[in-house]
């Protein structure tokens, strides 16, 4: 009898903890989902978070390995953001230079779909920066290292990676940045008001 009571009380406490965790996860997801339309505000907040992280690193004079790892991770995210979801280099149809994105109006329209969407890019940058910021409060992550070498490695890696990405963009003729839909203006309506007497 006592075992039944003990089993039922432990399973009910697990159920309460599980429900509380589920509610917390749903609340968190709701907050994240509500930020989707505010693209500029999200990126501004992420920029200030990164700026706060850099100020923390400069004043603490340490945690350079954490900063280097965060920079490499952000570079990896940025490359995934610039790369198309379906890589034209992998979709080879027998021509010398492989398939290309359409460049003329009479060709088939294929929109540029990113490997890493903008929202997931922002979310990963923000989450990793918060994790990196938290790591700066633990001495076990403050590995002594000669930081100018890390800066040199990062700059070299950035230049090599971006050179390869730009060559890929030129070869397959795609531009990952757009500023919205083109706006067409009809010939008959140019927005001028003509007053007649």
Characterize the largest beta sheet: strand count, sense, and whether it forms a barrel: none
Q: Portion of residues in helices?
A: 55-70%
Q: What is the beta-strand fraction? A: under 5%
Total beta strand runs: 0
Our count of helices gives 5
Low-confidence stretches: none
Order of helices and strands: HHHHH
Tell me what you see in this structure.
Belongs to the RER1 family. It is found in: Membrane. The chain has 197 residues and is mostly helical. It has a domain at 40-172. The protein is built from five helices and no strands.
Brief characterization of the structure:
One of its GO terms (cellular component) is Golgi membrane. Helix content is 60%, strand content 0%.
Tag the structure with descriptive keywords.
extended; transmembrane; 197 residues; membrane; Rer1; 5 helices; mainly alpha
Topology:
Layout: H1 2-34, H2 39-60, H3 64-82, H4 118-135, H5 147-172
Helix pairs in contact: 2-4, 3-4, 3-5
